[in-house]
Amino acid sequence: MTTTYPELLARLYAARRAGVVLGLERITALLARLDHPERRLGTVVHVGGTNGKGSTVAMVAAVARAAGRRVGVYTSPHLASLRERFTVDGALASEDAVGSAAERVAAAGGDELTFFEQVTAIGLVVLADAEPDLTVLEVGLGGRLDATNAVPAPIAAVTGVALDHQQFLGDTLRAIAGEKAGIWKPGQYAIIGAAGEAEALPWLALAAWSAGVSEVRIVEPDARSPATALLGAHQRANAACADALVDALVARGALVAPAEVRAAGYAQVVHPGRLDEVVPGLLLDGAHNPHGAAALAAYVATRPERPKVLVVAVSADKDVDGILAPLVPRFDAVIATRYDQARALEPAALAARARAAGALCETAPDLTDAVDRARAAVGRGGLVVVAGSLFAIGEVRPRFAPMAIDPIRLSDPSTPAT
Fold it and tell me: Does the pTM exceed 0.85?
């Protein structure tokens, strides 16, 4: 009997208790028992990095679709439905397809693995069943020991490196760069983007050559970087990285993408929850680490609306002060609140940190109250920005934009296995 989608969500919710276990042995063995779905994904592009990897994945997939190719995408995390992680030609996988794949994964012993390992195996089965011409995979956490690294990929990119997830990846940029660069393998075409700290670039390049890649291309945004539908000057770096990936696909014969095809793809790209203006004057952005918050702050500075109010909800395990520091000066007022999960920092504690950063700050018990209060305060001429966590964006966005919503709210675990 096929696992129903709600049954799968309940099982995965329980699997979160195992925490995060990095490593490839378990997922590699499981994929072998599943008759290697990772070998039936067409040409694979693997994308890692601290920030920008999701946008880069979305751009490459959009160009490939514009070129008439059947495109599978595996990404994480999701906002409101697990099915967002598995898409074919831009459409979410059906509940039946996900349930069927989950049944096969469980029959192969997958339900003994961690949350992310199970979700990755399910996603690979879903995508393999769809028989894509090419697949774009986003790294979940780190790279070297991330479950997606069990998939052979002839082309791989690291969009850039900044501080985040230090409890898993190390306390320095150099250590994190080493983990991110672990997706590179002998013979690959390696691309290094500029969506991170510049000092990490030499470490990434050295790691790529040390891994035995066939070629290394370091890309910087310039006047030739393609324009995209995504907001923010920082997307120029992601677009440059995406265009280099498209070049690599063209060189392999996996794609025919002349200038007009690329332009059409980049004009259609969407990435929900990242500088996402769901209705006029309401902007949503995950901005869950200092580097991402700085990019958001730079964009907000270009917006003429006044007043500007920040609605912020942050996970307690994040660099809260580092997130608030670039944002607070860009807003006339801040409303500190929380998303509805245990990881969220309590509003009073978050407000204290915001006030220490110089904010005129009040609290709200939840995101619904906070957003409604902020929109009423700014009126028609102002700007409300919701930021600090993708979990928060996943709660707010369905109020303003049609999207699938799961009956059980799932999120990746935040702590190592004990």
Answer: yes
